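Assess this today:

___
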Amino acid sequence: MQRITIVGAGFGGLNAVRAIRKADRSVGIDLVAPHPAFVFYPGTIWIPTGDDEPDKHKVALDRFFERMGVDYHETSATGLSDGGRRLETGAGTIENDGLIIASGARFIDRPEGLSNAFVPCRGIDEMARLRQRLHALDQGTLAFGFTGNPDEASAIRGGPVFELLFGIETWLRRNRRRGDFRLVFFSSSTRPGGRLGDKAAERLLAEMRKRGIETRLGVTPTRIESDRVVTDEDEFISNLTVFMPGLTGAAWFDRTDLRRSDGGLLAADEYCRAPGMRRVYVVGDAGSYVGPEWLPKRGHTAENQAAAAARNMLDELAGRAPSKPFRPELVYIVDMQDKAMLIVRSDRLTVASPPILPLHWLKRAFEWNYMRRFQ
């Protein structure tokens, strides 16, 4: 029996499992991940305000693995050998006929004092700690910011920061506490959200002005302290800081012969293949892909890449050449709790809707339906 090993149990890894099984019930699948659970990170933005309990956004994968005929290995990847045919893990070596790497990226450990900030997408526990800190404050300054990887334009994820900023501002207004708090948004970019498209960036900044949110653009944070943010230009008080650092490759990539981008991610072509390797594919945040400069790090992108990688992998195992490129597109609902904005971007069009209430409920319904596929 031929076997495919998948590293990661996030959007990319699990959708690769689904795509493989839809096309082939006979190939063996080994999946390597430290926890047998899927976290729907886009929904964790509702945890800090108390709208959702943390566990609502996590689903155990036992039944999914059983249904899909997956051999699950509760461990982490540590290296790669024999041209990709042997995955080294904390529990030993797993041999494969094909490998799909969907293990995600790693946050760059800067600026100095990053531990003083709350980092979105670091996990459910992080958002629960943010909720505890937020609810303990009676007044003060709340700061929200993000930066990227200076060597990798695509290695940035600012969306959750926008959503937490707008969601917390909405929550303060609903509880008649907005006047007790100063909200500050800061970014090293002079046009934050630009990768979403010009109109989307304009709408995001217009929404900040409408809500009385201060902006500090084009400033690079150099240090985050427990009570302030220090930038290359000045510093300002912050009683609570939410900050998303740039992304780079996972530490275990250093113990492989996989080709890397300047920013430390895994190089991949339009078919999601790792250059110079046979039957090794890259999916999701782990990769630096051939594609448009605005290509996002989003779950929807990972899902498209997983579909392409699965199809191309099965073709290679059957002796055929890969022929399915992944579809580069962005579909993103920026939630604000009282309304939301739909952003769509592809090679053919760019759409940025005005914020409206029905889109908030659409995002809620999407999460409920999406998580069902892994239950």
The helical segments are 11-23, 62-68, 124-136, 159-174, 198-210, 299-317, 357-372. The longest helix spans residues 299-317. The first strand starts at residue 3 and ends at 7.
